Amino acid sequence: MGSLGFWRLAQADPEWVAAVDPDGAEHRAGELLARANRLVHGLRELGLRPGDGICGLVPNGTDGLALYLAALQAGWYYTPINWHLTGPEIGYVVADSEARAYFVHERYAVEGARGARESGISPDRLFSFGSIEGFRPVAELTDGQPDDLPADRTAGATMHYTSGTTGRPKGVRRPLTGLDPDDSAEFMTALLAMFGITPGPPNAHLVTSPCYHTAVTQFGGTALHMGHTLVYMDKWDAEETLRLCERHRVTNSHMVPTHFKRLLALPEDVRRRYDLSSLRWMIHAAAPCPVPVKQQMLEWWGDVIYEYYAATEGGGTIATPEDWKKHPGTVGKAWPISELLIVDDDANEVPTGTPGTIYMKMAGLGFEYKGDPAKTAANRLRDHFTVGDVGYLDEDGFLFLCDRKADMIISGGTNIYPAEIENELLIHPKIADVAVFGVPDDEWGEQIKAVVEPAPGVAPGPALAEEILHSLEGRLSRMKWPKTIDFIEEMPREPNGKLLKRKLRDPYWEGRDRAI
């Protein structure tokens, strides 16, 4: 293999600025390499072996990056945890991933510590960035450990948790390859190469979204393995994005359509104030982008906006700026290493232009939902899989999405699953029945709406809505709370008990040009 891969690049040029934390602190590659190496030596002393897992509840920045780089050269699975989750939700991920070490930043001390207790992980495997009662500072693990590369290096992987439409989130687990970590990292760079992205300085990648998202980890990690400087944002802000692009001569990033909407809302003089001439590959995904929004972004930034459609499970499409202009609204064509299959309810392939369930496959990349062979099998059709989205292919092979997974809500690029919220609400004694779904939101794409059938004798109204929401405190992260609650006398259900959610949802989407 060649000369890509962070560990190779860091040894060749230890002075390269590999990452810039949200506070502006610059971290050179040699220093970051030494941190990752010390973590490997320390965790191996704790008994970690290839195939084991570690979890990190950490904000965007080099603390999480060091964990990622340690796991990926020691043959471990690294699971970054969503910091919006509550203690019980965090504890489930730590336990289900069978983490042999759990790292928490002091910013998330309260829920992070609750998660540790819920998971049952041994107290000697709890480590903190900063001070958390009952956790050992990371320095205790790494101080005195050698800075040099560990022996017997082997490629690890990330294992992200993807929420299911039913029940608990599942870890998407890929078999380990046994490759040299740098060779494995170099294979990863094929992802960015598909967009035409080139290796080496002076490239810089802006990390705009939380690193617990699969795509954010993938695109950021891959940019680093290509020798790009990672510039981390802590909390996304439209003008700050422009300032960082100018300050660090950012060439590429990964964004969601909500970011575009906020950027376009900036006053004209603010938009003109910043030099964005360095931008070359601004990639977006995670939610459908309204055609007018994308058109305005292309007019402002030029032909640097690329789109793709993919899933944590693997496979996908890509639309270059030129593709999109010729096929407005498309999410692109299949990757060279991926295949698309559109089928009807009987699993027969449908003709061009006819909507059906989208199945994808990615050459040579298997996966399983950890601990759930039934779910893994249920989403398969031969060697293709689906996340349940509906779309069609045009005569040139470009994919268009028409609807998605029956019920999933995408708000600000984040997937939210109604079943989980419904399960928590149904516990409330004053609720007889409930349905949760997405309704249009001009800023976020969708917002969460709950429709409640009150228990007999319970009066509907604002007081009941307030009481219901407060019952979710500490059980469900606030990003999953319904924005509004409506009341209904009787929920529309078929005789077999199946909820006719579309009957409830359709009126809110009337007059919209797409049901997403």
UniProtKB/TrEMBL annotation:
- Entry keyword Ligase: yes
Q: Which Pfam families does its entry note? A: AMP-binding, AMP-binding_C
Q: Which UniProt keywords apply?
A: Ligase
Q: Where is the AMP-dependent synthetase/ligase domain?
A: 7-365
AMP-binding enzyme C-terminal domain: from which residue to which, for each copy? 420-498
Tell me which PROSITE patterns the record gives: AMP_BINDING
Give the InterPro entries listed for this entry.
Answer: AMP-bd_C, AMP-bd_C_sf, AMP-binding_CS, AMP-dep_synth/lig_dom, ANL_N_sf
Record flagged with keyword Ligase: yes
Domain of life of the source: Bacteria
Q: Family per UniProt?
A: Belongs to the ATP-dependent AMP-binding enzyme family.
This chain's protein is named Acyl-CoA synthetase
Q: Which organism is it from?
A: Microbispora corallina
